[in-house]
């Protein structure tokens, strides 16, 4: 096996190549692209939130083009049923006339799954994703079917148009590694978008990486070291999101109803490991944890009535936690 410095350098090179290939199609949004790729290399799922027309679906399609993986798109609608996603058992007849049940897989049996406008489906249909996202297994008729690795769900939702939607339950939100807020494009970016989309030149992304290489980098990420003090900092940041806890801030007690689960701490550490590698380090720093905090935690905390009444966002409360909780522990 190659030494860690050599493998880390190769990872940075391949990561940059993937970013560059996606950049041929996607204009701007470097933080969003990096966040999506971070989730890819830790085996996590992504929730992309933004108004229509910002390129969320295009980003996922472009990523699928750049990766030699099986891609599937599911358009979530109120009449979508769980069997439309995971598949169902159907009766098949053999040449000799015998009939038996045969499992016909649904679009969830892919490696990159785009769950478009996920909050438009009913809770029953949304719940069909839970087992797949956590266990990478689908159970139908008492029989389990393993999904092909790597398995990566990217879901989109519109934060403005909420009529006829079903907010994702906390248990499902918690299974998303990151929640990324897609910002509106700047003036120069809009000019470039128009240049690319209103002419006969349609850029496309070529294949950069396959599943074998992705799994290799996923294993490398987990080899990055985390010092005890840095890991304790991640734990204290997590506990600070829980009202009335030892590390809770004034804003936590005032605006939050419930804090993040242990999955939040796992996401913090893994995302920080990716960032450390991209920064040329083999150990996680306090800054790596801080930079990963908002996308890893904003969907895992529950606002109370006062926060909703005063239009306080999770990012506001979490940013206050970052400002209050110190790097070094007193105890």
Explain this structure to me?
With 331 residues, the chain is α/β, with parallel strands linked by helices. The protein is 45% helix and 17% strand. The chain has 15 helices and 13 strands. Strands 3-6-9-1-10 form a five-stranded parallel beta sheet. The protein has a two-stranded parallel sheet with strand order 2-11. Strand 7 and strand 8 form a beta hairpin. Helix 2 packs across helix 12 (262-278), helix 10 (228-239) packs parallel to helix 13 (286-297) and helix 13 packs antiparallel against helix 15 (314-324). The longest helix has 20 residues, at 4-23. The protein is globular.
The total strand number stands at 13
H-E string: HHEHEEHEEEHHEEEHEHEHHHEHHEHH
Distance, first to last CA: 40 Å
Main sheet? 5 strands, parallel
Mean pLDDT: 86
Judged by helices, strands and strand pairing, the structural class is: alpha/beta
Query: How many helical stretches?
Result: 15
Q: Care to give the gist of this entry?
A:
This protein is of the alpha/beta class and 331 residues long. It is built from 15 helices and 13 strands. Helix content is 45%, strand content 17%.
Provide key terms for this protein.
331 residues, alpha/beta, 5-stranded parallel beta sheet, 45% helix
Task: Set down the secondary structure blueprint.
Elements: H1 4-23, H2 30-42, E1 46-49, H3 56-66, E2 67-68, E3 71-75, H4 82-86, E4 87-93, E5 99-105, E6 112-116, H5 123-126, H6 130-135, E7 137-140, E8 143-146, E9 152-157, H7 170-173, E10 178-181, H8 187-197, E11 209-210, H9 211-221, H10 228-239, H11 250-255, E12 256-258, H12 262-278, H13 286-297, E13 302-303, H14 305-309, H15 314-324
Parallel strand pairs: 1-9, 1-10, 2-11, 3-6, 6-9
Antiparallel strand pairs: 4-5, 7-8, 12-13
Helix pairs in contact: 1-2, 2-12, 10-12, 10-13, 12-13, 13-15
